[in-house]
Amino acid sequence: MVADKKEDDNVLRISKQHNVPFYVRAGTNFLQGVTGKDGVEKKIFETIVVSALGAAIPTAATVTGILQKENVATVEKVATGYTELEYGKRAHIMVTLKRNPAFVPKATGGKAPETPERLKGDKLEKKMKKVIKEGGKRGVEIEGASAMGGLSFFCTKCDEPAGDLDMLVECMKAMNAKSDPSEEERKGGSGEIGKLIISMADDNNLCVCAYVPKALQTGINAKDWLSLTMTACGLPKELNVPREDSNALYAQMKIENNSDKNVFCLKLRDYVIQHANGELRKKGLIPDIQDDDDDEVVYGDDDFDM
């Protein structure tokens, strides 16, 4: 989990090498237990010390905040100071966390929706090839962007589903499909990255699909992410209902214009990705942005010329 952590070492050393979800999982496992690949349950610590130097201190603060908010542990002590290194002094923070024995882990897991029979027929064969091709290509691009920027979540739009929610889900599946190294053209490969994608056919409907792999669900799950995003977009509670087959892994929703409720998909579309990222920032799952920055930072596509 952390390369330099000994079996009896209760120090969780934060660096810039990994992201917030990684350290939240690590801290939860140290305090609440986890079974290793060998089937042996790892040691549970009653307290751990979250330690960070310099630029990693904000990450440590976010990690400890999430662990406390999720009732994994409570903060017992915060110590700050400076540590002498070969190249000079560095600011150092050490936060002692005490295990919460009453912690109840969130439900994780879930499964992908079944592919509807109508999408398997000859009538839509050509269309589905385009949908799957777009998903596979975008999956490779997202995997590359994540590797370059260390991001665990990504938001984007898709063209080929054209406002068909079932097709949008299949596009997401294609993004998540494992890449086959023997194929001439790589496809998919982004199954370890949380994603939220949107699609529209016209101004009358908006389709949204969220996906969060099990490893990231300690921070947020797909169903919650989708619901929180649409709430932030102003979608009324009675219309903010993910499709019945939604779960922690996959969640999907189709919104249609409703003038009585002041719901207009064209207007909603322009805010979905913005608020999807906003919900991630609130939970410390992607870096925050500076308020005085003139350029909006979007962890995903920002081109909305649909």
Structural overview:
The structure is a single chain. By secondary structure, the protein is an alpha/beta fold. It has two domains: 11-99, Translation Initiation Factor IF3 (2-Layer Sandwich); 117-282, Roll (Diaminopimelate Epimerase, Chain A, domain 1), CATH 3.10.310.40. Helix content is 30%, strand content 20%. It contains six helices and eight strands. Strands 1-2-4-3 form a four-stranded mixed beta sheet, with helices on one face. A four-stranded mixed beta sheet has the order 5-6-7-8, with helices on both faces.
Offer a concise description of the structure:
The protein is 30% helix and 20% strand. It is of the alpha/beta class and 306 residues long.
- Strand fraction band? 15-25%
Shape: elongated
Distance, first to last CA: 42 Å
**Tally of helical segments:** 6
Secondary structure elements and pairings:
Blueprint: E1 11-14, H1 20-32, E2 47-53, H2 57-69, E3 73-85, E4 88-99, H3 125-149, E5 153-157, H4 165-176, E6 194-199, E7 205-211, H5 222-232, E8 250-256, H6 265-282
Parallel strand pairs: 1-2, 5-6
Antiparallel strand pairs: 2-4, 3-4, 6-7, 7-8
Helix pairs in contact: 1-2, 3-4, 5-6
